[in-house]
Amino acid sequence: MEVLGFSFKAIAPLLFAVALGRFIAWRKDITEPDIGVLNKLCFRYLLSLHIFNSTLSINYYEEFNLKLLIFTILSISLMAFLAWLIFTAGIPEPSRRCIFIVSAFRSNNVIYALPLAANLFGESGIKVAAMLVPVTIILFNLFTVIAMVYHARLLHSPKEAVPLEGAFKRTLLDIGKNPLIIGSVLGICFSVCHIDLPVFLTNGIRSVALTGTPISLLLLGAQIDLKKLSHNIGPALGACMMRLVIIPGILLPIIIGMGFRGQELGALMVVFGAPCAVANLVMARNYQMDPAFAAQTVYLSTVLSMFTMFGMISVLRALSLL
What we know:
This protein is mainly alpha-helical and 322 residues long. It is built from 16 helices and no strands. 83% of the residues lie in helices and 0% in strands.
């Protein structure tokens, strides 16, 4: 009962926020234009302030974990490579194959990691999760662009294809302008340089930052279209199984074997076990990579992740690893 109670307390707040967002959308109290505006607000300001506040509180001279960062970099790179090998052999259609590949290695880490880490470990857990945010954002974006551009070139003629060099330049610029990256870098610089902000500003940032993840989860629930889940659900379910079951099933034993425990294990569990990233849908639209299928994988994986994440937390807690 202690294990189940611990797992439920971690997952229940996320489930409630997503379900409430779906209810609000069902009541038509929020519309598509509203969701678009609020998503921009969260991405540009609320979540970036949340990450800035979290990284600001890290003592990098004592808490910096090079082993954790290197393992994350190598694991994400390996996931992307294996997903490419596996799905290239089995899915002939380039646009759908691309979504399978991206769904396998790119998770909704920012929206899931910080609130789940807080539910599991409190304020100290957020620090570990926040430390991984810059690394995951950069790698997820780079590998996603590689997959999208490559498969776009297969679909279109050379004149219509997206230039690879131009896409990488645009991606690097986007990463540099990404508010989450900016928040991370500023938080790290302020922490390393011991720059103390005035109390009123620190309290103001903390107050605003606390709204970021709840609103993001509400919006995630509001975007779930239950009608689209029932259409051609088989392939989407296969992509979700890869993201939620097979990838964490392969990596979690390795993570445990590497000696990661507690907060570090929890942070890695979310990186590799969270649902498909909402950004997959946006990029699929930009590169014409079957956006309807991308939406299905995002919606379905979000719903199923509540059960798979509960299961992972329960098992790891029962083994006294969390």
